[in-house]
Amino acid sequence: MKNLQREDIHIISRHSNVTEQGIERALKENIYNDQEMWQKFLRLFFITLGIGFTTAGIIFFFAYNWADLNKFAKLGLTEILVIATTIIVLLPKINASTRNIILTGSSFLVGVLFAVFGQIYQTGANAYDFFLAWTLFITLWVMVSGFAPLWLLYIVLINTTFFLYTEQVAKDWPAILIITLLFLFNTAILIGFIFLDKDKKIPKVPKWFTYILALGSVTFATLGMIFGILDGYEPVSPALIGIVLAVFALGIWHGIQSKNGFYLSVIPLSMIIIISALLLKISDNEGMFLLISLFIIVSVTLVIMNLLKLQKKWNHEK
């Protein structure tokens, strides 16, 4: 049986005559990590830790010795590091996981290179230019690697670039419009990765990656709705309300179909926050604060109870 989970083995043990030795063997073969798995985990962990500390050390090196270094040393050292790590990635004997981790470190060094260049030549005070260049110059690496942490860095850079652009250039854009656009972008990325995860021809997308994307999308949706409620009517508010309701309904449906409690907990939590903001808009006296507190306690309790019921139902259906 493929993809056998711990809950499956427990259900089999309760509803069959399998011996304790058989259950123990199934746990060892399908659940417990053996020596080889621990060695693989520790190898990747220490590689990631080493590259992370190395990148941080390079950043602090430039920060501490900035005044004593000439322009050639500042740019030359950073460029050599970027080139060296990129050459290491191209070596054929390196496995895919190590290659992707090193490539992620190289992507951070690209940001260091642009930061050094900007500080030397004073390319301008618009910080979005820095993040835009960083994003563009690692695009090819992101597309080729298909590595989830590198994709996460890429998405964070795009969001940061857009946000800084609205702060420094498009200063007249209303906050709710900015949040709406960020919500639409992150939701589109999330839906795209969910569909890619169903394609058996490509590697599976890690759950933690889609969870982070979903959390970001729900956060922007919640902030947009709160801005629309507390700051009064905005032209984009009706469109945002309709889109948020549609996306939330789609998320609930996906959570039920995939038997994933994450979406069924994050979305209701967002709705509780939005309704609390709506009640606060109606009145902000002591009685309303008491009502909001009771509403949060009761609604969170109901969400937890329903999640527990669904979890028990899904366990019995396995």
UniProtKB/TrEMBL annotation:
- Identify the residues that the record assigns to the DUF2157 domain, covering every copy: 30-151
TM spans, by residue?
44-66, 103-121, 176-196, 208-230, 236-255, 262-282, 288-308
Annotated signal sequence is: none
InterPro entries tied to this protein? DUF2157
Q: Identify the domain of life.
A: Bacteria
Give the record's keywords alphabetically: Membrane, Transmembrane, Transmembrane helix
Protein's name according to its UniProt entry: DUF2157 domain-containing protein
